[in-house]
Amino acid sequence: MTEKIEAILEKECGLTMDRPVIVGVSGGPDSLCLMEVLRRAKYTVIVASFDHQLRPDSTRDARMVEKVAARLMLNCVVDGADVRGYAEEHKLSIEEAARSLRYRFLFDLARRFSAQAVAVGHTADDQVETVLMHFLRGSGISGLKGMSYRSIIKTFDPEIPVIRPLLDLWREETEVYCAVHGLRPHYDSSNDLMNFQRNRIRHLLIPTLETYNPKLREAILRMSQSLKGDHIFVTETIEKAWRDTVISEGEDTITFDAALLSACSLGLQRNLVKHAMQTLSPGVDITFSILERAANTINSSLQSARVDLKGGLRLFHEADRIFICTSSAELPFDIWPQMPVEESLSIACPGQVVMAGGWKVSCERWRLPALAKEQAERNEDQFQVWLDADELPDSFELRVRRQGDHFSPLGMGGHSQKMSDFFVNEKLPQRARDRWPLLCVGDEVIWVPGYRPAHRHRLKMTTSNVIYFSMARPPEKILPEENPRQ
Fold first, then answer.
1. pTM for the complete prediction?
2. pLDDT band with cut points at 50, 70 and 90 for residue 478
3. Whose CB among 136, 227, 357, 422 lies 3.0–4.6 Å from 145's, allowing a Cys bridge?
4. Residue range 354-385, pLDDT digits in tens
5. Where in the chain is the domain with CATH 3.40.50.620?
6. 138 torsion bin: left (phi>0), alpha (psi -120 to 50), beta (else)
7. Which CATH architecture best describes the domain 2-209?
8. Hey, what CATH class is 241-325 in?
9. Residues of the chain with CATH 3.50.40.10
10. SS (H, E, C) the chain
11. How many CA atoms lie within 13 A of 106 on its CB side?
12. Which residues make Cβ contacts (< 8 Å) with residue 69, sequence separation at least 6?
């Protein structure tokens, strides 16, 4: 057993001999076994004992750990906190509060002593209980695979790993190990309290399930080990899809290419959304219903949609972009043409002007009306337009909408509507409307870029003079080393 664990310490946990390891020791058989295994393997061990103050005699456990560490000549640090009070203050369960305070203490020590890892004594029994807890919550493969030998918990530290070398050992084996090596574990009476979910699973659910399968624990452990391999495959697939679909990644916003994300399978979409949420808000609780809402928005035919996710995170589907962002994020505007601070810009024909965000507007006359008509019929880019120039001047104005603006869009037979109604009907995102550019002659709107020209200035069979406008977005600014597009 010792040789197997020592191999796990080196190969799976990635430990080296040059830096210390923080070992969480409660005084139970699992943590004492872990401490002794690391000590005998010649690692530099710093014992860390956290008093949850949930029992009147909890300080006795900490003193016992101190005595054991002193006898073995190991450095020991003891601390504690009022877990119950913390849980009430932060509206957490006792289990969540205990875990948060305990890990905060362990990782503070790891940074203080420049430790290479935080080691905890989770066993195969803990793995089985964890998998069942995740199953009851409706978890996917990432939950059903259970805990790993080595993992990063970003909420506590982005670099120092937590390691679990005893995941292949049953609790009975750690008890035997302690007896063989003269260690006397202390039994924590709170492990019998039925108001904790893990205890109910341990003492009620597992014994009941074992009446159907006496080898239940071994079966669940095998399943979690099998799913670890599957999870690696899924993770690699997600990473490739992430590189393909993510346009930019910031501290408070992740931007996807909407078409590429929509083309992914439903399961991949959910996993990409989940990864984005965990990147922006590590530790956020993500349920299937949240991912389902996000997927429905991604696959919606609406070109402008929004959905609240969890923990202040939101998803926006705007034009050809999908944003997942925090509540404080300022979404970029350069995905649309937007007027600069000035209310209007003049453009002469031929000519070119530059708007906000690097968008450019060009204007020129075409001498071949037949070719213009052919191009217009085949055109699928709504940011270019050919207009009948017989009643148009040589200079034009680009401006934002004004109170009382009306527009007679192509397809309405010359009937006009309020510009605000046109924006609503075309589902132009709300935040883009105030500075959306309108091409005008005097008070008349002759083209709404990205949508339609005015009915009056459409190309006709009798058109002999053609004027062409195009609006081009700036090239995307992506650092190849940060987000290679493949």
1. 0.67
2. very low
3. 227
4. 988 789 999 999 989 999 999 999 998 889 99
5. 2-209
6. left
7. 3-Layer(aba) Sandwich (3.40)
8. alpha beta
9. 344-472
10. CHHHHHHHHHHCCCCCCCCCEEEECCCCHHHHHHHHHHHHCCCCEEEEEEECCCCCCHHHHHHHHHHHHHHCCCEEEEEECCHHHHHHHHCCCHHHHHHHHHHHHHHHHHHHCCCCEEECCCCHHHHHHHHHHHHHCCCCHHHHCCCCCEECCCCCCCCCCEECCCCCCCHHHHHHHHHHCCCCCCCCHHHHCCCCHHHHHHHHHHHHHCCCCCCHHHHHHHHHHHHHHHHHHHHHHHHHHHHHHEEEECCCEEEEEHHHHHHCCHHHHHHHHHHHHHHHCCCCCCCHHHHHHHHHHHCCCCCEEEEECCCCCEEEEECCEEEEECCCCCCCCCCCCECCCCCEEEEECCEEEECECCCEEEEEEECCHHHHHHHHHHCCCCCEEEEECCCCCCEEEEECCCCCCEECECCCCCCCEEHHHHHHHCCCCHHHHCCCCEEEECCEEEECCCCCEEHHHCCCCCCCCEEEEEEECCCCCCCCCCCCCC
11. 31
12. 25, 35, 47, 75, 76
Looking at residues 475-482, what average pLDDT do you find?
48
pLDDT band at 111 (very low <50, low <70, confident <90, very high): very high
When pLDDT is cut at 50, 70 and 90, the band that residue 482 belongs to is very low
Report how far residue 474's alpha carbon sits from residue 175's, in angstroms, rounded to the nearest whole number.
Answer: 66
| Contact by Cβ (8 Å): 49, 78 | yes
pLDDT digits (tens, 9 = 90+) for 337-349: 888 876 789 999 9
Of residues 32 and 321, the one with the higher pLDDT is 32
Highest mean pLDDT among 209-218, 377-386, 414-423: 209-218
CATH topology of domain 344-472: Phenylalanyl-tRNA Synthetase; Chain B, domain 3 (3.50.40)
pLDDT in tens, 455-465: 999 999 999 99
